[in-house]
Amino acid sequence: MATETLLVEQRGAVTLVTLNRPQALNALNSQVLADLLTVFAAYDADPTQRCAVLTGSEKAFAAGADIKEMAPQGVGDMFGSNFFAGYDLFTRTRKPVIAAVSGYALGGGCELAMMCDFIIAGDSAKFGQPEIKLGVTPGMGGSQRLARAVGKAKAMEMCLTGRMMDAAEAESAGLVAKVVPAADLLAEALKTAETIAAMPPLAALAVKEQVNVAFETTLQQGILFERRLFHGLFGTEDQKEGMVAFVEKRPGKWVGR
Ligand code: CAA
Fold first, then answer.
1. Which is nearest to 160 in space by CA: 181, 146, 148, 174?
2. Minimal-distance CA residue to ligand 1 atom 3
3. What is the model's pTM?
4. Measured in angstroms, how far is the CA atom of residue 103 from the centroid of ligand 1?
5. Which residues does UniProt assign to the signal peptide (predicted)?
6. DSSP 2
7. Which of 200, 205, 210 is nearest to 239 (CA)?
8. Bridge partner list, 165
9. What is the extent of the structural domain holding 26?
10. For the chain, how are helix, strand and coil distributed in percent, rounded to 5?
11. Domain annotation covers residue 183
């Protein structure tokens, strides 16, 4: 399956989505957003699919929002269309999404990667929020998500200077979960996705909600939310199976209810 700007492939229970605007280094225009929303809504709705990988090309995950599309816009156009607000819908994808980043992840590209649940980077990856050089600022959540990921000092420095961070620095700063040789990136991301896809799916949904709530609420509220989801999973067949399978020393068989 393909849309105008994305390649989509189902590999068993893993959906692989590849940004496909090579002539523009995968710059994120309105069509990419529309296609992402269509593809990830279909992924969420498909009971055979358990984990997704979002990737780009070897040269660029995405070199930012499409500057050529934005350049002529006025404030009325941006405010009136609530430009970029659609990405909030992308972040509401309920199932796990891994970003596999090779090459440039700049501006909106870095922001899109950070909207995924975690990032696996090839050693060629370069992250940055260079919007200041265009007379603007991050606009797809970069100032907020980068600050949460790497802390105030590095986020402020990155956004004020527009400099790029390489994969090793991104890993030590906590922006990416792990760095692998660029040639192995897709294989490693798919392997991780297969591991997640083999987990009990309701528990995977619950983990995603729990960790995301950590960034939205107080510690006490977050712990209560976690505990209630934990309690709720004791109403599922997968919890019964998972604990019996452990005792019987065999792998669990998951039904997703
Ligand atoms: N938007 C539109 N087109 C882009 C683009 C972008 N963000 N980034 C690259 N392209 C286009 C180039 O214009 C060029 O097209 P043409 O062949 O038609 O001229 C093509 O992709 C290849 O790019 P380059 O020739 O520039 O490739 P390079 O290897 O010399 O440089 C690069 C690579 C350093 C990534 C450079 O392309 C670059 O700096 N890109 C812009 C990065 C940027 O500023 N991103 C932030 C955008 S604003 C934003 O994202 C706002 C937000 O918060 C959401």
1. 146
2. 24
3. 0.97
4. 12
5. none
6. B
7. 200
8. 127
9. 6-197
10. 50, 20, 30
11. yes
Q: How many domains is the chain built from?
A: 2
* Residues of the chain scoring pLDDT < 50: none
Q: Of the candidates 197, 212, 229, which is a domain's last residue? A: 197
The pLDDT value given to residue 24: 98
In a domain, 84, yes or no: yes
Q: For a pocket test of ligand 1, which of 5, 33, 67 has the largest count of ligand atoms closer than 8 A to its C-beta?
A: 67
Out of 23, 25, 144, 158, give the residue to mutate to test ligand 1, the one with the largest number of ligand atoms within 8 Å of its CB: 25
Residue with CA at minimum distance from ligand 1 atom 2: 66
Asked whether 102 and 122 are in contact (CB, 8 A), the reply is yes
Beta bridge partners of 179: 121
Kindly state if the Cβ of 182 falls inside 6 Å of ligand 1.
Answer: no
**233 to 15, 204, 245: CA distances (angstroms):** 25, 11, 16
Q: Two tokens at 117?
A: 């649940």
Do 140 and 84 meet the contact criterion of CB atoms below 8 Å apart?
yes
Positions annotated as catalytic residues are: 65, 108, 111, 131
Q: What integer pLDDT is reported at residue 137 of this predicted model?
A: 98
pLDDT at 1: 81
Of all protein residues, whose CA lies closest to atom 36 belonging to ligand 1? 63
Q: CA 243, CA 245: separation in Å to the nearest integer?
A: 5
Q: What is the pLDDT of residue 62?
A: 98
Query: Closest Cα partner for 5 from 105, 111, 70, 27?
Result: 27
